[in-house]
Amino acid sequence: MPDPAVADVPPVKPQGCTNLKVRQLMRRVAQHFDAEVGKSGLRGTQYSLLSHVTKLGPIRPVDLASLMKVDASTLSRNLKPLVAQGWITLEAGADGRSRLIHATEAGREKRHEAQRRWRVAQEGVNAALGPERVVALHALIDEAMERLEELGEAGADAG
After folding, report:
1. pTM, whole model, 2 decimals?
2. How far apart are CA 54 and CA 71, in angstroms?
3. Are 121 and 39 in contact (CB under 8 A)?
4. Coil/strand/helix, residue 32
5. Which of 99, 51, 54 is closest to 72 using CA atoms?
6. CA separation for the pair 46, 81 (Å, rounded)
7. pLDDT category, 57, cuts 50, 70, 90?
8. pLDDT for the residue numbered 80
């Protein structure tokens, strides 16, 4: 027998465009982080990339792209300004065809400087949303990424 309390609750139907809502949130968060991290001379995406290379390097570009969930061309484009500034290097890998990405000493110093600014930005988000919401948001994003992985694979198969 159905629960009468549940029968009175209308089914949940999402309203609006999820793509638009996620992009609006992404832009707002990116603006906040870019404004703070930008004081170090890096954009938020550059800080993230430099952090990954510093922690994981030397690393092959294909492995870094996979870990960061970006395609190879995006990674290549985002590496260029960091290479130009001397914060990372692309060097020969184990064979003539492979490359390895390394953080330079200047890159490690720049990451350390930017990390202090990133921490200020993160604390600002934590204060604005509340730590519980930030933890819940991270969990929701992780779960959504996992569930939507199947959509990405289906789209790749269709192409």
Report:
1. 0.76
2. 20
3. no
4. helix
5. 99
6. 9
7. confident
8. 95
